[in-house]
Amino acid sequence: MTSIIAETATTPTPGPARALVCRGCGAEYPLAAQHACYACFGPLEVAYDQAALARVTRADIEAGPNNMWRYAALLPAGQDPATRVTLDPGMTPLVAAPGLAAELGISAPLWVKDDSGNPTHSFKDRVVSVALTAARDLGFTRFACASTGNLANSVAAHAARAGVPSVVFIPGDLEPGKIITTAVYGGDLVAIDGSYDDVNRLCGELVETDEFEDTAFVNVNVRPYYAEGSKTLGYEVAEQLGWRIPAQVVIPMASGELLTKVDKAFSELVEIGLVEAPAGGWRVFGAQSTGCNPIATALHADTDTITPVKPTGIAKSLNIGDPAAGAYAIEAVRRTGGWMDHADDDEIRAGIRLLARTTGVFAETAGGTTVAVLKKLVDSGRLDPTAETVVYNTGEGLKTLDAIAGLVGPTHRVKPSLRAAREAGLLG
Amino acid sequence: MTSIIAETATTPTPGPARALVCRGCGAEYPLAAQHACYACFGPLEVAYDQAALARVTRADIEAGPNNMWRYAALLPAGQDPATRVTLDPGMTPLVAAPGLAAELGISAPLWVKDDSGNPTHSFKDRVVSVALTAARDLGFTRFACASTGNLANSVAAHAARAGVPSVVFIPGDLEPGKIITTAVYGGDLVAIDGSYDDVNRLCGELVETDEFEDTAFVNVNVRPYYAEGSKTLGYEVAEQLGWRIPAQVVIPMASGELLTKVDKAFSELVEIGLVEAPAGGWRVFGAQSTGCNPIATALHADTDTITPVKPTGIAKSLNIGDPAAGAYAIEAVRRTGGWMDHADDDEIRAGIRLLARTTGVFAETAGGTTVAVLKKLVDSGRLDPTAETVVYNTGEGLKTLDAIAGLVGPTHRVKPSLRAAREAGLLG
């Protein structure tokens, strides 16, 4: 595919994207289906025409639809609504969390950006919408991914909505619940006898075959577009706060890309004049699980070199042992004066329960991780409890019920009579 | 509670609600915590000051928040945002469904109103928000319900967000998954050794005790307010269609109340001049499961008398064997020229899969029921395939995974190598 499309196609809809630029050496490439630099093999990122971005006004955005496409003029695809491959995710709730703040000893406003409200209930709908819209613009006619959960759900659902064939690759030992939530959409679902790493490796080989020339693997050959979708989680928070960037954000890390893109979104908003930088800047904090903490470990060891790990632990949606954007996440955290930490499985479970009990938001393990790390950051003095903070929940508790099964249950068991209710203490 | 509050309290915030009126004999009562007529024991419904409703403009609504509270001026509670007990549900997607229409032989626009997008992923967030907001206005300091699933989730989450104690009553043999999704919010959760009917009966006794004088049971003592929340599912569809009422709507029925309230919402919009009635009026269709079909059975037998049934079948959120609003649902269907039908468990499962495959919307069994009935209505000629139709999905597939477990799964199983992929037919 690369050989055909990389040389000929450019994004057919007029948008602000200008080129793909290597994050390593700065080499530039046309807007095509390419994700690595031919010169240094570094990852590619979308670069924009700054003048085009600078023409965007708050009023333009506010007049847009109540979903992430209100920011289309800041994205690499989807300017023409008719070309979108999308479930219309975004504009998920920003929930005030005074009860959580009180329990953690935070005196400033605390908010939860609850992205479980997306159509397939994770932030992946954002990145998939941008990736597949770009993919269709680029001429791809089948959509694919390797995934163990949220991404699989999102790609299969997007393909079903668009009426486009899909093929999703999963490890063969995935829990039945996670298989159902992808299989129900009716696309091809390939169970690979192997680990997630094996699945990924196979997809990396398949994408080079003639038979998959027509296929966009959302997190492989159209990855630069995919990653840009995460910027909307930065834009939205700023707009929902009344066009203000919060002093502190706490973000879960798998590849580390989400953290870098929220930071990039804030920088863009300031650069193009939509938002004023907060007086002391903003500080970006990253959350990992102890079972998969290569990025936090590198930061704590004061190095840029990520040592891959074999992931363990219940926060499976964060379990990327060799995180592609880890070094960039460390850069963003260092530059902004933030920090990273990690939470073990018990702390993650407690984080899920604490968030639910104080806000009514039921998060998957990734959200529990982020809340648990928020608590650690306050306790260790790394996070300023007197500064406004936004904590990101990226997924839905219904998808990881097993994590807290056995921990929560009925508080009373009673026979169906008033006398039994009285004996159980329900009646004074 | 009734004895104290019914005689003294009225809604403290200025709203359009005027009184509670008996649906049976028309007797009027003040806006209090009362749900049955003292004269004839009929159910009470909120009545409005029509002049107040008529002052509401489209512009007022469009300037409101992007959730159901944009219709606060048409609701019995929540006019003052500061008084709301809410997760801010509503303004869920209205999804165009051309693929589903094509499969069913519908030539006119077909839409899915997908209420799984609410915070706890069912339409119950709407009714609970109105009920608990009214309840707090009325002086209640604890929130309760009897439920087997969606309602329990919603009440517990609302109470957690508001920082108000809650007590949720469930049958003791409920599936662990449904217990977790309520217990995680940390309120009291009382498992009753008995059926849902036993749970309901006990709640009816508890509500009369001194110890529960401070407690609002959302679907008992504040039921008239609760029921009004469903109107927003009518308002939203009309607004999302560009202030137009669709020719046909297909709505799942448990108590039958949702159907009557969507119809009431359409009537109100026409009466107060916000929308023109469609040329041929609108037709309301009701969907039940074959395992619990007392309303459809009565309609088919051309009677108003609902014969209660003992519910069976997988559409548990629709399993109300003695539906309180069944006769009113029949009245609405007859008056508008609609119809009712029911679908068995296999048809419900097929409905879930059909909807997911053609729209990317993954519905719980109630949504599968509605889609299956939509298909029957087309096949039987009861529903006009050349007229615009909206079908309501009221809940989330993640909550009823068991319904389709074993039916959907991987389409291929492959070892992690290109050779294996080729042998499996993935490479031509």
What is the typical, i.e. mean, pLDDT of chain A? 94
Number of DSSP E strands of chain A: 14
CATH architecture of the domain at 94-119 and 227-403 in chain A: 3-Layer(aba) Sandwich
Number of helices of chain A: 16
Residue share in helices of chain A? 25-40%
Oligomer: homodimer
Query: Which pair of chains has the greatest number of interface residues, and how are they split between the two chains?
Result: A-B, 79 and 79 residues
Helix/strand order of chain A: HEEEHHEHEHEHEHEHEHHEHEHHEHHEEH
Structural class of chain A: alpha/beta
Nearest-angstrom radius of gyration of chain A?
22 Å
Gross morphology of chain A: globular
**If you consult CATH, what is the topology of the domain at 94-119 and 227-403 in chain A?**
Rossmann fold
Order of neighbouring strands in the sheet with most strands of chain A: 4-5-13-10-11-12
The percent range for strand residues of chain A is 5-15%
Provide the low-confidence segments of chain A as ranges: 1-11
Major sheet size, sense and barrel closure of chain A = 6 strands, mixed
CATH class of the domain at 94-119 and 227-403 in chain A: Alpha Beta
Distance between the termini of chain A: 72 Å
InterPro entries (chains A, B): Ser/Thr_Dehydratase, Thr_synthase-like, TrpB-like_PALP, TrpB-like_PALP_sf
Pfam families (chains A, B): PALP
Organism (chains A, B): Polymorphospora rubra
EC number (chains A, B): 4.2.3.1
